[in-house]
Amino acid sequence: MRSAIKAAQNSGYEFVMACNTRTAYTEQYKQDCEDYGITLRHIDFNRNPVNPKNLKAMRQLTSLLKTEHYDAVHCNTPIGGLAGRICSAKAGVKPVIYQAHGFHFWHGAPLINWMLYYPVEKSLSKRTDILITIARDDYELAKKMRAKTVKYVHGVGVDLSSFERRNDNERNLSLRMALGIPDDACVLLSVGELNKNKNHKVVINALKKLQRKDIFYVICGTGNKKEYLQSLISKYGLQNRVILPGFRTDVSEFYKMADLFVFPSLREGIPGAVMEAAATGVTVIASDIRGIRDIITDPGYRFSPTDADELSKLIERTLSRDNRDNQETNYSNLSPYSFDNVVKELEEIYKGLDQKIR
Asked: DSSP of 205-263, one letter per residue?
């Protein structure tokens, strides 16, 4: 949301963020509030759409909107988009923006996703003044809905300057040593929450098939699948070669350590971790899905996220070839997704709000 905060402030708006402060990265949110001078409001949102706590959250949000008399609402995340649009209608607040970070339905998605999520989104789009998408596939779907205006923005904005591009043969050997990884090993890296959607298990399954003791796999992140992944690692006897260092604030150093960045998600909008890795100059292989295809444009570096055999062969092939052309292509693809460019795109949207505010 930093790009939205900056764009709103540049456009003359005061920004108030309503979220569940107990489940967010609290310290990061506090720091953002301090850095950008914004107000934080707690709402008891729950990620599970059927959790009854969301009824309480909607009452809280409706009350907040009625009390504070905001000029506009910018919703994010599926739950935020649902609650924000319904509660805004109840409170009589317009205009309403919904920024979709990746629809739960897409071409090739399971039928159940289309049955559950598509009708809800299509219905809510009638209450949406501006629908923003960050993936090209979603933009095409959004144009078929009922929002008054549909816009495409290049992701949420990545501060590319924070990720120094390494030399081709440069590796962070001190971090390897700290993690117990030999200097001459091949290191695979993933960055993301340890949950079902991030799908780290397919990489672990691919490692089992490879049977190469010189390949190590590091996953930065925390989540509810940690114990499951640890049991899978133990089952395959990979305890010495798969490392879970937890949530890290120094992830840029991990990019500098890796030989190959692997992003195996089942569903994404525009993944920040992929852009960070590409900005550092790491070779990236990633799921052949919506959003990722916008950045990793060479199909030879994409794989089916459910096919461990395909992934194991791609890892082997990528580690044995010269990937410099692909690294250059990925890096050149990043420019529109920079923080500064996304802020400019959102500013153009916010500048048009004056005519919509009643």
From this structure: HHHHHH--TTEEEEEE---TTHHHHHHHHHHTT-TTTEEEEES-S-HHHHHHH-SEEEE
